[in-house]
Amino acid sequence: MQQISTDGLLNKQELLKDIIRPTRRRKRFFNSLLDGIFFSLFFYALVMIIVLGYGVISFLTGNDSSQMIGEEAGMMIYLIYYIGYLTYFITFEHYFGKTLGKMVTNTRVVLMDGSQPKLIKLIMRSFARLIPLDFLSYLSKDPRGWHDTISDTMVIDDIPLYRVGPKAISQEKEEEVF
C-alpha cells in the first residue's frame, strides 16, 4: 500500500484560524454594554409586571400587598434577576447564536471549531458569567473571557459564508463600526 504524503496539507484548525478568530475587545465591550441595557429593560419590565400582578391579586382578594416588604421582596427580586439573566443569554444564544447586543455588533457565539454550541455549553457559559470579576478576564492577552474559556466557546465576527476569504477579511476591517 502506498503512503500519501500530507506534508503540504493544512489541517482543519489551520484552515479556519484566519476565518474563525475571536472578535476584538472593543466589540466585546459594546456587546456587554448593549446586553446590559437590553437586559435591564427586560428585567425592569418583568419586575413591573410581577409587582402590578401582585397588586391586582392583592386588591381582588382583599389582602394587604404591603406585607411583602423587606427581606422577602429583596430575595424575590434577586431570584427574578438571576433567573432572568440566565434565561436571556441561554435563550438568545441557543435560538439565534447571538444576544441582542451581538445582533447590533454583528457577532455570534461559536465553539472553537466554528460550529454552533450545544445547549449544555451555553448553559455552562451563562452560569460562568456569574463569576465575580469575570470582566477582569479581558485584561489578559487572550480576547476570550473566563465564561468563554470554561465553555470552550468564543465570540466571532458574523461574516456570511460568501464573504469568507482574505479579501473579505480585509474588507471587514474597512467596514468596522465598532
From TrEMBL:
It is a multi-pass membrane protein. Keywords: Cell membrane, Membrane, Transmembrane, Transmembrane helix. InterPro entries: Pra-immunoreactive (IPR051791), RDD (IPR010432). Signal peptide: none annotated. The chain crosses the membrane at residues 33-57, 77-96. Residues 26-138 form the RDD domain. It comes from the Bacteria. This is RDD family protein. It comes from Rhodocytophaga aerolata.
